[in-house]
Every structure is written in C-alpha cells, then in structure tokens.
Amino acid sequence: MPPVYSESEASPKGRTVTGGSQSQSFDLNKKVLVIRRSPVEYYLTGYYELPGGKVDFGDDPKQSLEREFVEEVNLKVKALYPYRVFTYLSDKGNRHTIELVYLVQLDDNLKLSKEHDDFKWISLNDICSLKMSCEIKLNIKVGLQEIKKKGIIL
User: Fold this and answer.
1) Close Cβ partners of 124 (under 8 Å, ≥ 6 residues apart)
2) Which of 2, 110, 128, 137 is the most exposed place for a label (fewest CB within 10 A)?
3) Do 40 and 72 form a contact (C-beta atoms < 8 A)?
C-alpha cells in the first residue's frame, strides 16, 4: 500500500507532476498524486481524480491549470506541455468536455480544498485498488509511458 500523507505533511519541492483540466502528479518514486472528491461534490463523490479543473472562457489552458492546482491542493506548479488530449460527452449528452493533460513541475506544499477530502501518492500498481474512472487510470498509464519514452528525470 502506498504512503498516505495528511494535510499537514509537505510534498517535496521540485517533484515532476502532470496536470490538465484534470491532472496527474508524479513524484521522484514515480508515484502519482490523486485526490478524492468529497461529499460536497455531487458528481463522482468518493472517486479519486487528478488535480485540475475547468478552463474559464478566454483563459490560457496552462494558466488555468496552474490556478486550479492552487485552488484544489494549494500547490504552485509550472505547466510544461500537454502529453494527452481527449474528449467526452456527459450530462446525458448536454456537456462536451475536452481534457488537456500536462506535465507540470511542483513548487510548493499540498493542502486540500473543501472539494476533496483525501490525497495519496500511488504507484501504477495501486490504481486498480482505488475508486477512479477508466480515463483517469489511462491518463496515469500514458503519463508514465511519456516520462519513460522521453527520458524525463523525476
């Protein structure tokens, strides 16, 4: 089982993470940051997801991602580049979402917003033991492959 950190524990500066409108975070041990949706969220309550959020109208996706990291987990990050783009329909076909998943670099300590009630640094082997969508699992796998393929040092 991966280590679980409380809100008061700091995540080391300089970790390399991935992010997007949903994001994923990689640390030096190739573990991924996932956060659990709290009961205040009606959609996918209790599911683990990657940090990130919506791009507001007229905003730059990189800046939106950096803002969402601060809002959701109180982390300052630098969005480097997207490594995956995908799209889906939800809300009975009334909502169309385009996801951009970025490689980002952490520069701060983690603290959850009220939208989330837990976080974990997990390995690829841990994704099946957590409640998360198939897309999030795929993002994690693709991100780890991207890091390996490009020889990115974590």
Assistant:
1) 30, 32, 140, 141, 144
2) 128
3) no
Calpha distance 35→12 (Å, rounded): 17
Q: What is the pLDDT of residues 20-58, one digit of tens each?
A: 344 545 555 567 788 899 999 888 899 998 888 888 878
Nearest to 154 by CA among 80, 47, 95: 80
Q: Tell me if the pTM is above 0.85.
A: no
As given in the structure block, the two tokens for residue 132 are 């998360």
Closest CA to 130 of 45, 9, 53, 36: 36
| Exposed/middle/buried for residue 24 (C-beta within 10 Å: 0-12, 13-18, 19+) | buried
Contacts of 131 (CB under 8 A, 6+ apart): 46, 47, 48
What are 65's two structure tokens? Answer: 């991602």
The 10s digit of each residue's pLDDT in 48-101 is 988 888 888 788 888 988 898 888 888 888 888 888 888 877 777 777 788 888
